[in-house]
Design a protein that fits this description.
The chain is mainly beta. The chain contains no helices and 13 strands.
Length: about 220
Amino acid sequence: MANVFSPFGFRQFRRLDGGAPTAGFDTLSIASSDTNLYFTGDPVATSTTGPYVTVPSTGVQQIRGIFLGCEFFSPTVNRKVWSPFFPGSVQTSSGTNDAIAWVCTDPEMLWIVQSSTTGTITSSMINNNFGFTTSASSLGNTTTGISNVSLGSTSVTTSASAPFRLVDFWSNWNAPTSGNFSFAANIPGTGAVINGTDNTSAGMIVIVAPNNWDRKNLTGI
């Protein structure tokens, strides 16, 4: 049965060396005046205007890592809050109060992501590189904080500049039907079919590795 398109951004799968997916976290900064929204699972890039992360301008550029939440002083409630997403522009009248972003920058981490509906990814594309859908970066869920970004199915390339490399299909792993994998919901109609495992239709879930990230690319940024 065709996959249901319900993107969740990039979600940690495991490290390439088989270790637990708990390494490679950096605490970085988001400018308090930044009006962009950031959601858990969003790719972020290094800003050129200061020691900050920012929303990538394209889906095929070098990135810093994956956003996994933040803490910031909220002028609305007048205290520090911890949030799975950054709501944009938390600057106070008395001056700046930059947010702290938790970003996984580990170049050895593997990620699970749903592909876009613009095309079907095939097994011949394994070890090719891909971009992501920047148009969805501001469309995450402000209740759960989950990203709405997907892998750009038609962005497949051999160019070293693309940020992700396809390494496998989610269907090749024993996908659970319950637990923390909210994207692995049953598709109604034919029983326990795991969403994203129909590799004959668009929207399949795949496993990717970092390709052009700050900690993996030895050229300047």
